[in-house]
Write a structure and sequence with these properties.
Helices cover about 40% and strands about 15% of the residues. It is an alpha/beta fold. The chain has a seven-stranded parallel β-sheet, sandwiched between helices. A three-stranded mixed β-sheet has the order 12-9-14. Strands 7-10 form a two-stranded parallel ribbon. It starts with about 20 loop residues before the first strand and ends with a helix.
Length: about 375
């Protein structure tokens, strides 16, 4: 499925007044799934919450899930249909997507979970007469990142350059499944929430972890605008959508934006611009495991950035994040204990090391 098919083409002739009684949440052992389950369990208007995952959540997460019922099941297995039928599930929240291959698994495992797992889940939703609402977590990665991008993407826009990252391509396919489900079952309110990079004290998002370095390499001649979403707002948006979302596609992001140079300064780091070719090679060497684990989407994001128009989030979804982009970033910095660099010897050593690598890398590129 090509990037040109990205859009908000979810059917709009769905009934948006559905009040959930039995909500099923996937990925219950993971950060988003488990926390959405905990939020829903605290809402007395929801009669039952079915938490599903192939792995059992940790003890603390299970405790916070309260009255929710955990079912150990794999959404890739057709037997997941029994969970729907036995419990008359009417609302499905699907935040369980992998942004990178899992440890011990490769690209095939990631695609099997993201694409084939979602396909199987939606096949069950389509055949289950009780289902009336489906909420899916997606990403702004579907818009891609390029020099041709607009200042802000609206939900109707497509990627100007086809995304090259695995995660972005998976999300494009997943969104296609959502639109297909909405066409075949117009009585289902099928909603897609597109999140930008998510930050916060509990969620150590790898794309922002690179601010931990005392000297932070950036791309020479580029100062991309970045838009973020606080982890609590991501959880709250998924919970809100489970209770009240109409069918459609929604950009969900904090108000405002930061340019990368501002973010580096707010994190108390020292910025060192390097050519893009060296950012990909020397930068990764200098930053160690943080940048070595960068995905294609993250490399492109720190090159071009991505802005989102969130008008539809407020007017149609009826949701307003509590944290702005700047506030979310500052909370990440505080929660991650990113203190300004104060030891000159540490700065000098790091800067000398990076400059030496840049010099060696520049010589190799001449």
């Amino acid at each position: 499925m090509g990037a040109a098919q990205v859009g908000s083409g979810v059917a709009t002739n769905v009934r948006d007044g559905h009040t959930p009684k039995v909500v099923l949440v996937t990925g219950a052992s993971r950060f988003f799934g488990g926390n959405v389950v905990a939020r829903l369990a605290a809402d007395p208007t929801v009669e039952r919450i079915i938490a599903v995952d192939a792995r059992t959540p940790g003890r603390e997460l299970l405790r916070r899930m309260g009255r929710a019922e955990f079912v150990r099941a794999d959404i890739r297995n057709p037997l997941i249909r029994k969970v729907f039928d036995r419990n008359e599930v009417d609302t499905v929240v699907h935040p369980a997507v992998l942004s990178r291959p899992p440890s011990g698994g490769g690209r095939a495992v990631m695609k099997d979970f993201n694409v084939l797992g979602t396909m199987q889940l939606f096949a069950v939703c389509q055949k289950s007469p009780s289902v009336r609402r489906v909420v899916v977590r997606s990403s702004s990665a579907v818009y891609g990142c390029s020099a041709k991008d607009p200042a802000k993407f609206t939900e109707e826009m497509s990627a100007r350059t086809p995304p090259r990252g695995w995660f972005a391509r998976d999300m494009i396919e997943v969104e296609g499944f959502v639109r297909g489900l909405a066409r075949r079952r117009p009585d289902i309110a099928a909603s897609i929430l597109r999140f930008p990079p998510i930050v916060g004290p509990r969620l150590a998002h790898r794309g922002v972890q690179y601010f931990r370095s005392p000297v932070t390499p950036t791309i020479l001649g580029r100062d991309p605008r970045i838009q973020l979403l606080h982890e609590e707002d991501a959880i709250a948006a998924l919970t809100h959508a489970a209770l009240a979302a109409p069918g459609g596609t929604f950009n969900v992001a904090g108000d405002g934006a930061l340019v990368l140079s501002q973010a580096v300064r707010r994190a108390g780091r020292i910025e060192l611009p390097v050519p893009f070719a060296l950012f990909r090679s020397v930068g990764r060497s200098f930053m160690g495991p943080v940048m070595r684990e960068f995905t294609s989407e993250q490399i492109d994001y720190f090159h071009f950035g991505c802005g989102l128009d969130t008008t539809r989030m407020r007017t149609e979804l009826g949701y307003q994040p509590r944290w702005t982009t700047v506030q979310a970033f500052d909370d990440f910095v505080g929660g991650a204990a990113l203190r300004p660099v104060i030891d000159p010897r540490w700065i000098d050593a790091a800067e000398t090391k990076l400059l030496g690598l840049v010099g060696a890398g520049a010589g190799a590129h001449q």
